[in-house]
Amino acid sequence: MNDATDCWDRETLGVSGCQRCSSLVESRSQIVDGVGPTDTNLLFVGEAPGANEDEQGEPFVGRSGTVLDTELRDAGIPRADVRITNCVRCRPPENRDPTVTEREHCRTYLNQEITAVDPELVVTLGKVPAEHLLDRSVAVTSEAGNIDEIDAGETSYPVLICVHPAATLYDPNQSDVFEKTLRAAAEHAGDGGQSALDEF
Ligand code: URA
User: Fold this and answer.
1) How far apart are CA 62 and CA 86, in angstroms?
2) Least confident residue range of 96-110, 125-139, 184-198
């Protein structure tokens, strides 16, 4: 944990009652913050809450969450040991992708969270967080397992590109990619090593 952790507080940041996105204020039933320890090596970043997350107030608790939990467990990463968050903290209507403006509105919160956690590795789950954080177009399937870098505040962080857990529900080939990426994440965060990344 570092000093920035003290800044990660809903009230201080103004997340509570955030009104920045008029459409999301209408569609959300609550704001869904990240969960998990702030003194972890691994920070997972998804897209935005869906219906289950909006109802329960926690990221990745629906079908995608079940996939994520299973694959994390198989990779030897207890969910309780990592931080899981989203680019956007309010559920978009009809589960549409969050717009670029909505992502930008939420970026202050995400940057503060990244700084507070100060992870060894940020893992992006799907195209939206990869493109948002890396600020470029990303072909997730072909780039899964690659490490890039982002700036959050004054520090840069390695980012491991990963497919979205939901992709594995529709395309079984993606399960293998997802599994390998999480094993690479476990290894990278565990010892700062690169060996599992060589599998790609
Ligand atoms: N998909 C996401 O990207 N985030 C969630 O929290 C749930 C599903």
Assistant:
1) 14
2) 184-198
How many angstroms separate the alpha carbon of residue 196 from the centre of ligand 1?
26
Given ligand 1 and candidates 58, 68, 86, which is best to mutate, with the most ligand atoms within 8 Å of its CB?
86
Beta bridge partners of 161: 124
Query: Domain 4-192 adopts which CATH fold?
Result: Uracil-DNA Glycosylase, subunit E (3.40.470)
* Ligand 1 geometric centre to CA of 79 (Å): 15
Q: Are 182 and 174 in contact (CB under 8 A)?
A: no
Q: Where are the domains of the chain?
A: 4-192
pLDDT digits (tens, 9 = 90+) for 1-57: 344 444 567 777 778 889 999 999 999 999 999 999 999 999 999 999 999 999 999
Q: What distances in angstroms separate CA 34 from CA 57, 89, 109, one per listed residue? A: 9, 8, 10
Q: What is the pLDDT of residues 59-71, one digit of tens each?
A: 999 999 999 999 9
